[in-house]
Structure formats: structure tokens, C-alpha cells
Amino acid sequence: MPAQLSADIVVIGSGIVGALAARRLAQQGASVLILEAGPRLESARIVAAFRNSPLKGNWMAPYPPSPWAPHPIYVPKDNGYLKQAGPYPYPAEYIRAVGGTTWHWAAQAWRLVPNDVRIKSLYGVGVDWPLTYEELDPWYQEAEEILGVAGADNTGSPRQHPFPMEPVAEPWSMRRFRERLAPAYPVVANTVARNSRGYDGRPACVGNNSCQPICPVNAQYLGINAVEAAEAAGAKLVPNAVVYRIEHDAKGRIAALHYYAPDKSEHRVTGKTFILAANGIESPKLLLLSASSKYPNGLANSSGMVGRHLMDHPSTSLTFYADEELWLGRGPQSPSSINTLRDGAFRSQHAPYRLDFTNISQVYGVTNDLIKEGVYGAEFEKQLRWRAARQVNVKNVLEVLPNPDNRIALSAEKDAMGIPKPEAHYAIDDYTRRAAEVSKADFARIAELMGGTGLRYSAEGQFANNQHITGTMSMGNDPASSVVDAFGRTHDHENLFVCSTGVMPTAATMNSTLTAVALALRTAEHILPAKQARAATAHAGREADLA
Amino acid sequence: MNAPIRCIPLLALIGLLVATPASAADNTDAALLQRGQYLATAGDCVACHTAPGGKPYAGGLTVPTPIGNIIATNITPSTTAGIGHYTEQQFRDTLRRGIRADGRRLYPAMPYTSYAQLTDDDVHALYAYFMHGVAPVDSKPAPTRLPFPFNIRLSMAAWNLLFLDSKPFTPDPAKGAAWNRGAYLVRGLAHCSTCHTPRNLLMAEQSSRELAGGMVGSWSAPNITSDANSGIGGWSEQDLVDYLRLGHARGRAQAAGPMAEAVEHSLQHLEPADLQAIATYLKTVPAQHDPADTRPVDNWGVAFDGIADQRGTALPDDGEQWSGAQLYDAHCASCHQASGEGSFDGGLPPLFHNTATGRADTANLVLVILDGIRWQTGDSGVRMPGFAHALSDHQVANLANYLTLHYGNPAARITATQVANLRAGGAPSHLVALARLAMVVVVVLILAIIVLWRRRKRRRTSSGRA
């Protein structure tokens, strides 16, 4: 048995959120240990596997799950890891590996809009956050400067300081959307952790259009960059360490973590402070798994809210042919969107949404369509060229309200390590469905303005999952209805913090990563204030002494 | 705090400029400082005299040379740590004769053999700039400590007798103004020969082989004479101007390593007329031909897709077993494209018709794969990632051989041992041992001469007696 591990701070999970909290704490001089259930991946191998694969549209293909730390796979068939209790499926995708799920994200690094944190007070729906947008602003800024965020100013999210970078060059297709939809719909550059110029040693985007499943040049910030930065700051990382139990002492403080190595050998890790950052599904799973006689419903769960308020951003969409050649596929996959519907008085009636344009090359999809339609020969080539040049897609990104019935629970089924699998209970309510209905008028108007033909709406009542796992460990001031406080500290355990998209009490209309990173940096500051600030205080003290 | 005091010379000067009504003198002073700054940029003083992340001109950069590490000095106007106490005469002697204010000799890592060409006017402007345009920094970098015999700075006096031509530049009336300006910049201020002219055993530039190619650490500074194959004979003047200004000439070459630094800190900031002058002069530098270059080094290779027939083949688990094509697919093809053609606008360069793959000497190719290219232009930057951490010596050699075979000079081969050497900072130099050996030889010679002389004297004396 190897020597017992111990550190000031022990972080469970090496995704972008946990790794950036770890980095900040390590920079302040704390000894930091990161436990990651999955293996280390090698970027070049992922790139080579993707380039060598005929399944370009399957973004999980280059990330096969490890036997000891499985993650959900749905193509070619469901591997049965994330159980679905219904009534509506919640087919989340995530990656259990060093660096986490941002190995394959579209680098969308959005802020909330200010009213997102007050929807109960303003619109009588959902809940209010225990902090204000203004309190979040400096943490957003810090996160944006670490990630290297490029963006436009007119997305509805005010800021005190400029973006680290100007927006990424606008692809032709998005320019044409912007020009033709004005003034009815302002189309603006997305806020992305993607370089529009060299930044922090990483190059500018060169437009490979494979952000998902892998940015081959690291122009977009990846969780692995956060991990490497944390390691450079002194944090130690143990891969393939599947934490299966959090151990508490008699007073309810967390004393240790227990993990399995792939050979199922058991290891115990002690520490002073613990950060749970294993994503919005694996984190509540671990809290529920750690039930004891003192905490029979699981840790941090005196409210019974662990795993509850599961949210995402469901989408419906419209695909059509524009009346001009737009050739999607040049530049990043998701460059531009419409942000004017993210907030408004209508939020008392239906969900707000963003309208997002894909810029993913249509060649692969159209090829499959044509084969299915039985088109071949010269006609195939003609049709492929015509359709790939003109086919476009607009989707909504809908808010889902927190509902305790939507939740992650423990399944009776176990994985290969004997650990219960997570089980999703989920439904999409009328508040969200009404917005999907309303947005159809936007879809139709957009198609009209683009001279659209061959309109294909997504199937009635069918929503695409956007993998923005939110809720499940919501923050709030009231320990009876929330899991963590405004600083991410669990109400029940003084030295257990949660850094995750799971702490977001509402989902709003934007990808959740940047908000989770901002909250995690704020949590790290709360655990161990930055030296700069402390040094300044100390310095002021010395000068006062001299005077 | 002494920060305010440090700023006094500059403030005093600015004060002077502001206080007196606009006059020719003011304009001259401001113009003089501006010219001095421009000349300091053209001379790329910052390249050596500023440490990475350090204050401008405060020194501290370690310059590796075959005789040991030389640490660049503080050349800010600090009177305690820099050159604030230098008179203009002392400054001039330093630049042109390699003699410091304290009378000690500089090592020729400081290109005073080039700066010897500087006109009095330019030295005057540089002096004004370094005294009044640069913020003083009161910290002294560690002193240079070279091994014996090079620690005896006086030895440089003898070296200078042999190798220093201290005559300032004299224009050639037979050539045009542009040529003369170019010659002045290339031979003098821009000190191109410091890197691009090969050196003899005593580290002096071989004037007979001007710009025929030299070494900068492990990097090789290529032949930039007018030879059509080995040099830049096939380049147009516009190609040369593009290269100096943009860091690349389309379909020919791009700056990396120390040359990228020269473009970043110096060349890209030069006036168009000066770049044009440099190009004019370079095109006339006598050709130096290397028989190994059987065709122009930027004229090898064609577009070639070595990846397509790898498709469907599973990648070996062991990365050491990956073929050159598989390594290329994983690390290079996303930017340089499957056939090595680069991007449509040349922003991501093609790998064929590129001196990076066309040279018989592959050191630079290997170093670029290991270290990448990183430098900043005004509004953007050039950033090729390095792969030192991702690729083993064997993989780098495998990949580089794939590149030279298909896109470059197929005769250029690279071994893993060569890669390991370059990764470790280059092959060790024997210069110190050679110099020590030479000293023993010299001492033996001197003793022999003394003995001979005495014998002769004795003989002469005895014959006189006779």
C-alpha cells in the first residue's frame, strides 16, 4: 500500500472548475492534491484519433470511457451508465479524465445577465441567487483573464473592464446572418474562451472547425490547461483515483476521502479542506454515496436537496436552406448568436432564451442525408455541393426552472467498481415548452429573412440536451432549501466546499462553465485569500508601525 | 525611495523642452532623442541588454557563447549600476573600440567590431538617448565569469589588434545612396555579421566569408549572401523587405529563434527606406556557395499527402511506433494541412518551398519543432507551439525526417542523438580546451624563441670575440 496521501486542500475532480480552484490555492502556498477518477489523456492522440475516425460527428468517439471511471456513451448505443428514470430523458454527456469535459466544448464562456440572479423577485419564478451580479463581476473578470475570453460588449452582460481579447474573426456565414437579420435581430459574436490572437502562450484560432471533439491547436482554453497551470503552481494530481466515499468525524467535519485505484486497491487521503468538483452529476452521486449513520441521507444533505433541481438548456431548432451560399464550417463551430431574448417581463410567463447559429460544416450531415435518400452519382455531388453551401440551423437555448423532482439519484445498478450508477429523473415543464413554442415565430422570421426554403423544424416535443449540467447542489442562504452557501461551503460540513456548475441555483440562458469558474475562484479566495491582498494589508501594517 | 531621483535626468530634459519656448534647439533635442531611440532599435541593443521580463536595458540576459556564458550589462543611465557616469568619449570607445570606461576590454559578444563602423553623429544620438531617453535602473546583473584564459580581459587587446578594424564606415562613391545606407546598417548598426558571418577559431568573424552563415547558440544563422542556391540570390528585394518587416517571405522562409527576436525587437520597426536599403545591399554581397546546396534551399519539395493512406489504420498504442505520417497527422496537419500546403493566405506557411525543410543543416528545423516560434508584431503575433514536452527525441527525428523527405531536402537526415543534443542546448564547445592548448603552444614557442635568441646572441658574442 502506498504512503498515505495528505494535503491542506484536497480537490475531487480535475475539470476546468476544480483545477482552477486548485491553481489559485496552490499559488497562495497551500499544499493541494487533486484526485481524478479518469486517466490522463494525450492531446495529440485525441487529435490523431479524431482525424483518423470516419465518425466525425460523434464527439465522444475520441474519449472512450475507462473501465474504472465510466461515463455515459450513447453512440452507437447507450452504454447504460447514466440510468434514465424519466419521464423525459436527460442524456448528459461528460468526460471523466484529467481535464474533464472541456476537452470537447465549444468554449462558450458566457456571463449571466444581471436579472438572472433575481428571477423570483422580478418575475415570481424560480429562486433568487444569494449574491448579486455585481458581486460576481470581478470573479468573471478574473476567470476571463485566465481563460482568455474574447467577446462582444452588446450581449446583455455588463462589465467593468474590457474583455482580454477582441472577438474572434467573424465567419462569412455569420456576417451574412448579421447583415440580413438586422435590424429585427442583432446577431453578435459569442463570448468564447477562444483566442482571437496569441494569448498566454496559446495560438489564435485557425478555423479547424473541430472545437468539438477537440481543438487541435489549443486556441480554445481546455481543462488540461487549467490542470497544467495548477501543477505548475505546485498542486499534485493523482489520476485514476476513483473517490467512492467522503469520511467525516464525530463533529461532522470531513476527515478523509477514500478512493479505488483501477486494481480496486483502497486508498485514504486526509486533508484540512476538501473541494468537491466532480461535475453536476458525479458530485451529488458521491455525496449520496457517503451516507453514514450520522448522515443517513448522504453528506451535505440535511436539506434533502442534494441531487435535486437538475437543470440543462433544452433546445429545439429549425434547419433550412438559405437562398445564398453560406458554406458553414469555416471558423469556430459556434461563433454568433442573438441575445435580446435572454431577459424581459415575459419571464413571468415563459422561459427566456438565446438563439444560436451553428457554424458546423454541413458536408458530413448532408452526405449522410443523401445516402439515406438514395441519391448517387453526379446528382449526389451536385446535391452535396448545393446543400452543404446553403444548409443552416438556428436553435434556441431555453432556461429550465429549478424543480426538486428533477434530480440525480443513486441507481440500484452498479458500475464495474461496484459503485452505484447515477440515475436521472427529469421532465421539461410548461414554462420551458411555452418558450419553445414562442421561439418558433423567431425561427420562421429568421428563415424568411434568409430567403429560407426546405424548412425542417425539430420534432414536436423533442428537445436536444445541451450538456449544461446545472443545479443538483444549489447555493442559497437557507440551509433548509439549499446545499451550499454563497461561497460554496456546504451548510452541513464546515470544511467541505463545492465548486461546480451544480451550485448554480438557476440555469439562465447561457453555457454554465464561466459562471462555475468565477464562483470557484471566489470560493478559493474565501478559503485562502490571495497573498497580494494579504501582503498589502501586512505592508500597510508595517508602515503604520514605522510611523 | 530614490525613484524620483532616478527620473531627474529625463525630467530635467523634458522640463527644459517644456519650459523654453519652441525653438530650433528644442526640436533638435527631441529629434536627437528620437533618432537615438531609432538607432538603438536598429542596433537591437535590447536583444542582449534586457533579460526576459526585465526592465529595458537593465542587462542580466545570459548570452551563451562557445567560451562560456556572458552576462549582458546594465546600460541604463544609472550612475551606480549602469553607464550614467560615461562621458560621450567613453561611450564612443565602448561602442567602437570595445573599451569600457574603466579601461577594461569587452568581449566581442558585444558587437563593437560592427559598431566600429558607426558615424560620430550616430554615436552622439545614441549617447543622448541612453543618457536621457532611458529610465535608469539601479540594479547590477551578476558579473560575467569566463574560464581561464578568457577571464583575462586584457587578452582582448591582442585580439583587437588582430581583428578590430576601427575605421568608421566610409561610403563608396561608386554606389548609390541606398546601397551605402544598406552597407552601413548591415555591416554596422544592425550587425548582421555578428550571427551570419562564420567565425574562426578565435571567434573572430571571417571577413573573407562575409554573411556566409554562422552559429547562434545551437541555431544556425543561414548564408545570406547573393548565392542563388545557398543564399538569397533568388530572392527579390521585396522578398527581403517582407521578411525583415513581417518575419516571413511567402513561399521562401520565416524567422524563428534568434532571427524572430531580431524581427520582433528591431527589424519590423525600421523605416521602409532602411529595409529597402538593407535589401539593396544584401543583393550585392559576394556569393558564398556551399556545394551541399544543389538547388536553392527554398526550392525543394511539393505538396504531398502522406496521411490519406494511413486512414483506417489503427494508431499503435506506443507513440514511439507512430510513423512520420501519423506524427504529422497528430501534430502538424491541423495547421499546415494534410499536404503541407499551409493556409490559403500563407499565414500558416507551406512546408515545401521553405528554407526550414530545404537546408542540408537541419538544426533549425529540429529546434523549431522543439521550441516553436513565438513573437509579437504590432497587432498580432506569430505563435507556433513547441513540441519539446510532447515528443521524444526519436519522435522528433522521425517527424523531421518525414518533413525533409517529402517537403524538403531529402538528403537531410536527422538522428535521435542529434535531437537529444539540440534539446540539451547543442554540442559542447571545445574552444576553452583549444584556447588553453593554444596558450601552452604559445608559451612553448616563446620559450623556444628565447632559447634560440640567447643561443644566437651567445654565438654572435663569441664570433665577435673571434
Automatic annotation (TrEMBL), chain A:
Q: Which residues form the Glucose-methanol-choline oxidoreductase C-terminal domain?
A: 402-520
**Molecular function terms, GO-annotated:** flavin adenine dinucleotide binding; oxidoreductase activity, acting on CH-OH group of donors
Residue ranges of domain Glucose-methanol-choline oxidoreductase N-terminal in the record: 215-314
Database matches in Gene3D superfamilies: FAD/NAD(P)-binding domain (3.50.50.60)
Family matches, as Pfam families? DAO, GMC_oxred_C, GMC_oxred_N
Cofactors named for this entry: FAD
Q: Determine if Mitochondrion is one of this entry's keywords.
A: no
Q: Report the residue ranges that make up the FAD dependent oxidoreductase domain in this protein.
A: 8-42
Q: Cite the entry's keywords alphabetically.
A: FAD, Flavoprotein, Oxidoreductase
Cited InterPro entries: FAD-dep_OxRdtase, FAD/NAD-bd_sf, GMC_OxRdtase_N, GMC_OxRtase_C, P2Ox-like
Question: Which protein family is named in the record?
Answer: Belongs to the GMC oxidoreductase family.
The entry's protein name is GMC family oxidoreductase
TrEMBL record, chain B:
Where the record annotates domain Cytochrome c, the positions are 31-134, 177-286, 319-407
Main localization category? membrane
Xref: InterPro entries:
Cyt_c-like_dom, Cyt_c-like_dom_sf, Cytochrome_c-type_DH, Membr-bd_ADH_cyt_c
Pfam families per record: Cytochrom_C, Cytochrome_CBB3
Q: Which residues bind heme c 2?
A: C192, C195, H196
Gene Ontology cellular component annotations, sorted alphabetically: plasma membrane
Q: Which UniProt keywords apply?
A: Cell membrane, Heme, Iron, Membrane, Metal-binding, Repeat, Signal, Transmembrane, Transmembrane helix
What SUPFAM superfamilies does the record point to? Cytochrome c
Name the cofactor(s): heme c
Q: What is this protein called?
A: Cytochrome c
